[in-house]
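Dig into this one:

. . .
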Amino acid sequence: MSSIHLRTEIPGPRSRALMARREAAIPRGPYHSTPIFAAKAEGAILEDVDGNRFIDFAGGIGCANMGHRSAPVMAAIREQIEKYLHLCFSVTPYEPYVAVAEKLNALAPGKFAKKTFIVNTGAEAVENSIKIARAYTKRPAVICFNDAFHGRTLLAMSLTSKTNPYKAGFAPFVNDIYRIPYAYCYRCSYNLTYPSCKMTCAHALEDAFNRLVPAESVAAVIVEPILGEGGFVTPPKEFFGIIQEICRKHGIVFISDEVQSGIGRTGKFFAIEHYGVEPDLIVTAKSLGGGLPIAAVTGRAEIMDAPGVGGLGSTFAGNPASCAAALAAIEMMKSDELLQRSTAIGKLFEARAREWQKKWPLVGEIRGIGGMCAIELVRNRETREPADVETKEIAHYCYEHGLITITAGTYNNVMRILVPLAITDEQLNEGLHVMQAALAAVSDRAPALSHA
């Protein structure tokens, strides 16, 4: 039986009426990838206010790895809110905050002692990771990467690479931030080919100490194990080992931003585990709360202890209900069932996407790890001209036919998959069928696309 059920045109009349209210009451800045208003969600299915039912391939931009309204998470929230809602950890501490920290300390890579600080959002966690690194090293500078996304607050936005829409009109940005190329092999900054490139992009970190900022001034290098908003770019296996070695050589804190790639998204609890390295600090958020806002910085105890007493804090950080939800979400992910499911989703997607790549030149590259997978769309396979308009058309076709998707990439030409890992095979295949139909429809309307 089909999971998708469309009763009205998309968007329906109630969604259109709510959008009119939204436009009158809310500034234009917040963007919507789909023009529908949600009424309820369960697992990997979302129903809108008009009674239309969709398969969700976006998962709240990666916040629903456990599925919408996961039973263990919901039960934990209900139990907690019967006790207390908000106390402020800075006033009267409570056990759930401590328990979440203990779980993350145990799960993070490395046998060294670790500690965790809990906040509200990924951007807040990123900013605090930089504060902690600066307090520990007594250095000001931070190195980040092209195509990175680290958040929208001032420091996090300064670390973010993409200009439009994230940085346009918001200057000036934070000082002492320097950017180097990421291991984006499909669009190599050096026009080289892996593996004959000898990982020039990773060794560019050493070159940055000569051209951009001296190593003795650098507090941290922050990097996503897999680019999120940058287009789900997956580096070669050697990349992070080289980065970590250079950081250790110069006493620089190595920060892994796992806001989108963590909490089981790639088939391991942390994506950086695929690369066999041990970051000094790891930033988590999104699915950590199973649907509630919570984020964390986890890392070496001696680094985490660098800020003085009172130097870290936030009024709502580690909200009790969010901590309870996080404990349930972590236990679900530790069971291995969802980790295995992530890997299976990735394999199923890749198999289908390989067929698309053979059939339609629009599909330039297929990439990702586990359930964090994507296709990059191009107008010409030789020049790799980004197919940004076509990508938007595919996303539009998808939601009109019952599939919620989101795009990504510096050039807005990547279709990314962040489906809840609780999705069934039947639902996943139904969603992929819609995406396939979208690719066919757009490819048929664009005869100029080249097989070169």
